[in-house]
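Residues determine shape. We examine one folded chain.
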Amino acid sequence: MSVPSLLGVFAHPDDESLSAGGVLARHAAAGARTGVVTATWAAGTRRAAELAEALRILGAGEPRMLGFADARVPQSAPDSVPFIEAPLDESVRRLVAHLRDFRPEVVVTHDAYGGLPGHPDHVHTHRVTVLAVQAAGLDQLYPDAGEPWQPSALYLATHPRSVVPALTEVVGVRKAVYSVPDEQITAAVDVGPWLEQKVAAVLAHRSEVERGAMPGVIAGLPADGRERLLSTEWYIRHSPAPVVAAQGVDSPGPAQWTFLAGAQPSTR
């Protein structure tokens, strides 16, 4: 059984490594096409260069940037508006173009909370991705953005409520911690065999290490702390709405695979 092509869509450089670095590395190791779209920061900035290095480590190709500014760092894209202030239709159109160009079977993004920290850019990336995954398969939407393509599945990177105490024990108490009821988890993926790659990709975001953001916290953890924090990734399957195929609309058809061979569905 072949491993499906995978495209991650995340808000900032480093989110791909923290949220789905193990799954990206696992797919790439199995020979699948993998890639990442990043909503904020511009090409030519330091963080874009760090993203390129992290993706090289994970085997996820070259950076794909939407080019908007980080909500909290205007200089991240000096010639663009903040992502959360950009016209929604334009944000969706840009992402649809990447979806139609890459043609992934599976898309992975932030959950509706924006992950544990609930950053507004993370939340908005979730919204834009949900809309774009559906729009990408509709031939009368964004006709200038490429030939229609409908991904088979959308997965949301998240954390079950039951693991939060253990995670906060490792990294300390944060201002806000968002999680979902355990029964909402579709797959708990053991990425232990790819943990070294995942950690290396996280640490490639050196500016975030230097300023003491989450990559910096991880840099200061012992090996067992990194394992507790990063060796499992949790996902909610959010299937796109069915699209009636029109003439000329390509799609992979019904998914015949389980998300990653070896991924364990939640039994809670």
User: Anything to note?
Assistant: Residues 243-257 have pLDDT under 50 and may be disordered. Strands lie at 6-10, 34-40, 64-68, 106-110, 153-158, 187-190, 232-237, 264-265. Residues 71 and 85 are 8 Å apart (CA to CA).
